[in-house]
Write a structure and sequence with these properties.
315 residues; FAD/NAD(P)-binding domain; 2 domains; binds flavin-adenine dinucleotide; elongated; single chain
């Protein structure tokens, strides 16, 4: 363990973590960022990003995140491509551990994001960004007048399907049961929509296509029979999992594992702030995550100023 007590440690290097790093670095707080296994966050998994302001022609997800990183480093953020494996937030000085080392800081910003749940198919991974997506807001506009398949049966799946009717010629919801988990009101809206169709008792076994999605192979969950359906896009809407396992017992989490925050920035531990999809269950966009990262950094700065003022008063 080093003797040094950092002002700010940031956990996560998606839009929230790296925006927090830019703000903290420009405030001369010399942030240390643990980037984690998915350095750059979820946008590293996608191709075209067309809704991030400032890029009228669009930008590739990985290139956007390289730019975030370069901007943070330009102002002095130290970025380490390591995963945090445990934390201790119980005292004024916070402890953050990686394999083979412990670091201490007066404030910590948690920006570990949330991972979309996937079906776990090889073809799904290969065709991500080529017709396979987990985000209708992000990618729906690429499928104007196309056939779209949505996988799932909860509120999120129906919200995504309803949103996708703005673009697609037909939206088919594939669900493994013969009834939906979604709320009654969402079900009523989906059933009433002329573009939405349902494929019940059906499980996607394969996504077909070489350079882009061309169809899905669907299994009837009652008979095991397989059938191929042509489609242009597959939106997997089976949920998200916040990356919070290392914070269990240290921060208050809700029943789904998201970090609880009364105001969207502070947490149950004074001096620990949160930003991005790890707390935001609703918007889940790069630009909102960046904004929340900015807020977290500004709050950390205020907290440090208050600490300094308190120490000066004691002296
Ligand atoms: C396929 C896809 C396409 C998308 N397209 C768009 C789009 O076009 N436009 C848009 O606005 N949004 C898009 N999104 C959503 C957007 O990517 C997210 O809303 C955004 O990345 C959330 O940012 P974040 O910083 O909160 O978290 P994330 O991007 O999830 O980053 C989390 C970070 O935390 C790190 N981490 C996790 N655990 C640890 C740990 N224990 N220790 C250290 N680090 C850790 C990870 O390595 C990662 O760097 C897309 C998402 C996906 C999956």
């Amino acid at each position: 363990m080093s003797d040094e007590i950092r002002k700010v440690i940031i956990i996560g290097s998606g839009p929230a973590g790296l925006t927090a790093a830019i703000y903290a670095a420009r405030a001369e707080l010399s942030p240390l960022v643990f980037a984690g296994g998915l350095y750059g966050g979820q946008l590293m998994l996608t191709t075209d990003v067309e809704n991030y302001p400032g890029f009228p022609e669009g930008i590739q997800g990985p290139e956007l995140m390289e730019r975030f990183r370069a901007q943070a480093e330009r102002f002095g953020a130290e970025i380490r491509n390591e995963d945090v494996v445990s934390v201790d937030f119980k005292h004024d000085i916070k402890r953050v551990s990686i394999d083979g080392g412990e670091f201490r800081a007066s404030t910590v910003i948690v920006a570990t994001g949330a991972s979309a749940l996937w079906l776990g198919l090889e073809s799904e991974t290969r065709l991500r960004g080529k017709g396979v997506s987990t985000c209708a807001t992000c990618d729906g506009a690429f499928f104007k007048e196309k056939d779209i398949t949505v996988v799932g049966g909860g509120d999120t799946a129906l919200e995504e399907a309803l949103f996708l009717t703005r673009f697609g010629s037909r939206v088919t919801i594939v669900h493994r049961r013969d009834h939906l988990r979604a709320s009654k009101i969402m079900q009523a809206r989906a059933h009433a929509h002329p573009k939405i169709h349902f494929l019940w008792n059906a499980r996607v076994r394969e996504i077909v296509g070489d350079r882009h999605v061309e169809g899905v192979i669907v299994e009837d969950t009652r008979t095991g029979a397989l059938m191929e359906r042509p489609t242009d896009a597959v939106f997997v809407a089976i949920g998200h999992h916040p990356n919070t396992s290392v914070f269990a017992g240290q921060l208050i989490l809700d029943s789904r594992g998201y970090i609880e925050s009364p105001d969207g920035v502070s947490t149950s531990s004074a001096g620990v702030f949160v930003g991005g999809d790890v707390q935001d269950r609703h918007y889940r966009q790069a630009v909102t995550a960046a904004g929340l990262g900015c807020r977290a950094a500004m709050r950390a700065e205020q907290y440090l100023e208050a600490l300094d003022a308190k120490e000066a008063a004691v002296r």
